[in-house]
């Protein structure tokens, strides 16, 4: 479906559902914490994302039941609640209950299906069964296992290494059928394509829904930007050797650049490397990335689009081979990795440099306070902004005990490859300054972004301009 058609459909579904009164906003927010934290309209989220992800719009409507009971809904990427309002309600369709009830109500079809399903599980017999049901236009009455089998069998998935890469007790000699029967208990992997454990761990909403994760990934997940397998190419060996006698500290940086927070973080990690194994997680590679690589024994990088999922799976596997003393996240920009540490019970130290007012979504700082064991700000003004947000959004006036102030001081280490400075002549050309001796330049570092305190920079410049008489 092209973007325009989907937009028109979403607008229609939004008003159809809104006018029906069948969407329970309180229920939706209570059962979907990510939506609640994002501070967005719950109905808009449901129409745009939630319906396709199999989320329930109310306690009275079971999306998984509705989608899997009625074949004209299942697999057609329609909003199940909107379909029910427009068509299903008039047709007497059920919104929750036993998924097999629709089949049990038709004894004649039941008898025919029982006879057909008595065939063996070989490919030829399954194809015969499928063709027979297609002739009768009765695909909708297939058991869920059979529907999933035919759906997956027709996709371009390489199953050739399935058995050699999984070690559970196999339910069938057919890899597709084995996956369908085994995913819930054994979480098998399809090499190079899909990792069941990774997908379910990464997306709790899918795990909670009970849907076949591979089916969801193919039908909806990929188009939603979800990741089906951990990308091992994002993991590289560092320049230091792993020491079995040392504990490990994981250090998270939003980028490996020669700018303020990354340089500060690298300096801390460089100092700690004398006593601990250092593992870097870098969300985005930048101009001094090689320095980060050389300062650790292992590095995960370029995961900006999947910070939580990749961090979680990486750390989960790391814990199988070593103990982790703590994770240090340097800058709120890397906050998504925080949820991975929290879920894996890794102690978390968070270095906060940003004002709470500048961060989006609102409530991010509250999440930082809640999930961290130790929060460090460089000055009282930063901590005060966090307390202000805590009061505004959580009605909490008492200062949490995990908040601490520790001035940053001078950088203990700056790598040789941190970049080149502009010359005075170059700066004058950029700013079109014809007489440098008569100018006063206010220096600012970093991007011109509201979270960087650009308003303070402008205020200082204005003050100097007003007072300077030269």
Summary tags:
alpha/beta, globular, 470 residues
- Mean pLDDT, to the nearest integer, reads 83
Low-confidence stretches: 99-123, 137-142
Count of DSSP strands: 10
Instruction: Estimate the strand proportion.
Output: 5-15%
- The N- to C-terminal Cα distance equals 64 Å
The geometry reads as globular
What's the gyration radius in Å? 28 Å
Largest sheet: 8 strands, mixed
Name the structural class: alpha/beta
Count every helix, treating DSSP H or I runs of 4 or more residues as helices.
22
Strand order of the largest sheet: 3-6-5-4-7-8-9-10
The helicity comes to 40-55%
Overall description:
It is a single chain. With 470 residues, the protein is an alpha/beta fold. The chain is built from 22 helices and ten strands. It has helices spanning 3-20, 25-31, 33-38, 42-50, 63-69, 80-88, 101-104, 107-116, 123-136, 144-153, 175-186, 196-202, 204-209, 213-221, 260-272, 289-294, 307-318, 336-343, 364-371, 380-394, 424-430, 454-467, and strands spanning 189-190, 194-195, 235-237, 248-253, 277-282, 298-301, 324-330, 348-351, 374-377, 403-405. Strands 3-6-5-4-7-8-9-10 form an eight-stranded mixed β-sheet, sandwiched between helices. Helix 1 crosses helix 4 (42-50) and helix 1 (3-20) crosses helix 6 (80-88). Mean pLDDT is 83; it is low at 99-123 and 137-142.
Secondary structure topology:
Blueprint: H1 3-20, H2 25-31, H3 33-38, H4 42-50, H5 63-69, H6 80-88, H7 101-104, H8 107-116, H9 123-136, H10 144-153, H11 175-186, E1 189-190, E2 194-195, H12 196-202, H13 204-209, H14 213-221, E3 235-237, E4 248-253, H15 260-272, E5 277-282, H16 289-294, E6 298-301, H17 307-318, E7 324-330, H18 336-343, E8 348-351, H19 364-371, E9 374-377, H20 380-394, E10 403-405, H21 424-430, H22 454-467
Parallel strand pairs: 4-5, 4-7, 5-6, 7-8, 8-9, 9-10
Antiparallel strand pairs: 1-2, 3-6
Helix pairs in contact: 1-4, 1-6, 10-11, 12-17, 17-18
